[in-house]
Structure formats: C-alpha cells, structure tokens
Design goal:
The chain is α+β, with helices and mostly antiparallel strands and 84 residues long. Helices cover 17% and strands 45% of the residues. Strands 1-2-3-6-5-4 form a six-stranded mixed beta sheet. The longest helix has 14 residues. The chain is flat.
C-alpha cells in the first residue's frame, strides 16, 4: 500500500492486488475522499445507482465507504471519515 497524505489523513491511497497477471489491472482499488460528510456519500450512492452502477456500501473502522467498478472494471472507493 502507498498513502499520499495531506493534513491528518490520506488523500490518495494505492493498494496492490494480491494477484497480478497480464489480463487485469494490478491495483486493488483507488480511493477518493468526499467532503460533505455522510450526506454527500449518500447522494453519490443515489446518483451512481440512478445510472445503473452497482454500489456496495461498507463500514470501515474510521470511514464510511462505497465501492463500485468503473467501465474498465477497476474498483473505486468513495469515502468520508466518520467524524464528518
């Protein structure tokens, strides 16, 4: 894992997949922090689902997250800290 940090938490996190081959991306997922708290994350889920994108909410210890796949099959995470 590689974290690029600003302030108290990471803004960009890169996770390597545990399986690497020539037919799939080598990153497990790419994560983006949303500002605006849980409400902003809930709005993102509604918008993604309204255009037919399957979304998987997940609760981490420190953040609320949504996971989904981009058109190329890469896993994307949107998250907000619990404190927001």
């Amino acid at each position: 894992m590689v974290f690029f940090r600003a302030n108290d938490h990471h803004n960009l996190a890169l996770f390597l997949s545990d399986k690497i081959d020539n037919t799939a991306p080598s990153l497990d997922h790419l994560a983006f922090q949303l500002h605006g708290g849980k409400r902003e994350l809930d709005l993102a889920q509604v918008e993604l689902e309204s255009v037919g994108i399957e979304v998987a909410p997940y609760e981490h210890e420190e953040v609320h997250s949504l996971y989904f796949r981009d058109p190329d099959g890469n896993q994307i995470e949107l998250y907000v800290p619990h404190a927001e």
